[in-house]
Design a protein that fits this description.
The protein is an alpha+beta fold. Among the domains are: 80-153, Dna Ligase, domain 1 (2-Layer Sandwich); 227-288, 2-Layer Sandwich (Nucleotidyltransferase, domain 5), CATH 3.30.420.40. It is built from eleven helices and 18 strands. The chain has helices at 45-63, 97-108, 156-168, 179-187, 190-195, 227-238, 242-252, 281-305, 328-337, 361-373, 387-394, and strands spanning 2-7, 11-20, 23-33, 37-38, 41-42, 69-74, 80-89, 116-128, 131-134, 144-155, 172-178, 197-202, 207-213, 216-223, 265-268, 277-280, 316-319, 340-342. The strands form five sheets. A five-stranded mixed beta sheet has the order 3-2-1-6-11, with helices on both faces. A hairpin with an 8-residue loop joins strand 15 and strand 16 (277-280). Helix 6 crosses helix 7 and helix 8 packs parallel to helix 9 (328-337). It is globular. Bound molecules: adenosine-5'-triphosphate and magnesium ion (MG). Magnesium ion is lined by residues 8, 179, 203, 320, 362. Residues 8-11, 40, 75, 203-206, 226-228, 231, 246, 249-250, 253, 320-322, 324-325, 359 line the site of adenosine-5'-triphosphate.
């Protein structure tokens, strides 16, 4: 059984799957509201543990099996990435799989402050002697092997606290995976990753960006706001409760005011015992529009900062729960000046149709990622991203 655990800011989601004759099948899905995270990071261990317990219990009940090990995702603005470079001498005159491990290990040897640790080391290209641009160097002849590696680091305490919550819920962590990397597994095609694409996970508490080019991850970034801020804007702007604002956003929200006919009216519940009011649906859009615009501008700055924007031949893909907000695609198209689509997760046999919501991209991606962990090192994905983390834990970091 392969189990993905997405500990998000608004929900904890647990997806159990199994591999039968090379094909993944979903077995069960559990989902519980999450209240112990802020901006993608655990701030309350006890409530996070409770959400995890509930999501896992639901999944266990649905599939009738005990869940012991999980692949868990991490996100937030504490995630940083940098380029690194490793070089080793080839003793046997030909590159072996061990040499590849060694050169990546060499690239991982970067100076890291005590409060950070390496989450992933993703090979970008190998260079044998002076021949660059090699994707798979095993078997090549030469005397020197170099690797250009993209290193993703995370705040140590954010990782510690997440792992602690999962372990307190009685589970073992098989791997900690960068959330947008997992979502990318679920929503992007190989072709998009080759041609260049920006994946944007517009969740509840964070919006994470991952840029792929030539088949591998090239850049990551995060903005510490997501759909929750839209809900709180509505709470203030419409003078209503959080839960009413959330429902209104999901049923009637739109972030482009001109797309909404002025004569459409919605009922807004009042605060306390004030009566409900009738408001034009356009008022809702007028509140959402500037905030979404601001957020997309920040993401656009991030895309530009990466230096890769002109090379995004496949444009942008927006996933995460907030991706479904009407008007978002049109606005993103304009602001990014890139063709943009909504990223629905890939279908897994066994999962009912109504589950194919962009909210589930991360958890489906975690399962896909988990399957890869047991295979030969797939391109761009390290075999055991957690190995180093456990080593660091072992050293009492
Ligand atoms: N149809 C919809 N229209 C607009 N927003 C929506 C819709 N459905 C869900 N959302 C929003 O999506 C957000 C939740 O998305 P998601 O489940 O991806 O977040 P999360 O994984 O819990 O959080 P994060 O990844 O930021 O830690 C909520 O803010 C919710 O209001
Ligand atoms: Mg999420």
């Amino acid at each position: 059984m392969i189990v993905g655990l997405d500990v998000g800011t608004t929900k904890v989601c647990c997806l159990a799957a199994e591999e039968v004759e090379g094909e993944l099948r979903a077995l069960a899905l559990g989902m519980a509201p999450s209240t112990g995270l802020r901006r993608g990071v655990v701030v309350n261990i006890e409530s996070t543990v409770n959400s995890i317990l509930e999501a896992v219990r639901q999944a266990e009940e649905a599939c009738g099996e005990e869940i012991t090990n999980v692949v868990v995702g991490i996100a937030g603005t504490h995630i940083k990435s940098q380029q690194s470079h490793g070089v080793i001498a080839l003793k046997g005159g030909e590159v072996t799989p061990e040499d590849v491990d060694k050169v990546i290990e060499a690239a991982r040897a970067i100076n890291l402050p005590n409060d950070r640790l390496i989450l992933h080391a993703i090979p970008q290209e190998y260079i044998v002697d002076d021949q660059g641009g090699i994707e798979q160097p095993v078997g090549m002849s030469g005397v020197r092997l170099e690797a250009r590696v993209h290193i993703i680091t995370a705040g140590a305490s954010a990782v510690h606290n997440l792992v602690k919550c999962v372990e307190k819920a009685g589970l073992e962590v098989d791997a900690v995976v960068l959330q947008p990397l997992a979502s990318a597994e679920a929503v992007l095609t190989e072709e998009e990753k080759q041609l260049g694409v920006a994946l944007i996970d517009f969740g509840g508490g964070t919006t994470d960006v991952a840029i792929f080019l030539e088949g591998t991850l090239r850049h990551t970034g995060a903005v510490g706001v997501g759909g929750q801020i839209l809900t709180s804007d509505l709470t203030v702007g419409l003078r209503t409760t959080m839960s009413a604002a959330e429902k209104l956003k999901i049923h009637y929200g739109c972030c482009l005011a001109p797309m909404v006919p002025r004569e459409e009216y919605i009922e807004v519940p009042g605060l306390g015992n004030r009566p409900a009011r009738k408001l034009s649906r356009q008022v809702l859009a007028e509140i959402l529009e500037p905030r979404v615009e601001e957020l997309l501008e920040i993401i656009n700055t991030e895309l530009e900062r990466s230096g890769l924007k002109p090379r995004l031949g496949s444009g942008a893909v927006i996933t995460g729960g907030s991706a479904l907000l009407p008007g978002l695609l049109e606005m993103a198209d304009q602001i990014f000046e890139l063709p943009t689509r909504i990223g629905f997760p890939r279908k897994l046999p066994g999962l009912p149709e109504e589950m194919y919501h962009p909210r589930l991209s991360t958890v489906i991606g975690l399962v896909l990622f988990g399957r890869n962990l047991g295979m030969e090192r797939p391109k761009g994905i390290p075999k055991n991203p957690l190995k180093k983390i456990f080593e660091l834990f072992g050293r009492g970091l």
